[in-house]
Amino acid sequence: MREPPPPLLPLLRSAAVGELLAWLFLHPENEYSTTDLAQRTGVSQSTVSREMDRFAAAGLTSERRHGNLRLIRANTETIVARPLIDLLAVTFGPAAVLPPLLEDVTGIDEAYIYGSWAARYAGRAGPPPRDVDVLVIGTADLDDLYEAARTAEHVLGREVNISRISTDAWADHNDPFVAALKDNPLFQLSAERSTS
């Protein structure tokens, strides 16, 4: 059964394509192996490899070999790079921009995007999200979280709201805020996600 186009950017064939392009074009200074991209996006390595073949054929990426590794990076010289970067930043950008910013913040046990962006990513119809809501579970310093949010806003071109709760509060099933969050789509932010 074919996956429907993602509500975040229905021009794309799948959410996986959007997320892969976002990792490449929103971090154009980096090279990624197919294994690394699979871990970061939760997409199988065979799917990543197939999509990388398509991106290369379209001139969107360049690659080089280092032993058995296939290292891929965005082709920022293509005429579509700038508009593609802008479009990816406001659609799939949070999935690629927030994990590296949060991985250096100490005291984060878990982090999730919730609200309208997570709902669109999960396939729920609605208007494009105007902001990005992030929940951090743990003891991270609020100043560090706000600094990460401001950096993300600069790249994503929209407001990023970060809330922090304790691990105990996240485990409290009687808390109405926590219950509401857990009953709605959540997008886990981490450098690596399990492949599907």
TrEMBL record:
Stored InterPro entries: ArsR-like_HTH, NT_sf, WH-like_DNA-bd_sf, WH_DNA-bd_sf
SUPFAM superfamilies membership: Nucleotidyltransferase (SSF81301), Winged helix' DNA-binding domain (SSF46785)
Entry protein name: MarR family transcriptional regulator
Organism of provenance: Microbispora triticiradicis
Superkingdom in the source lineage: Bacteria
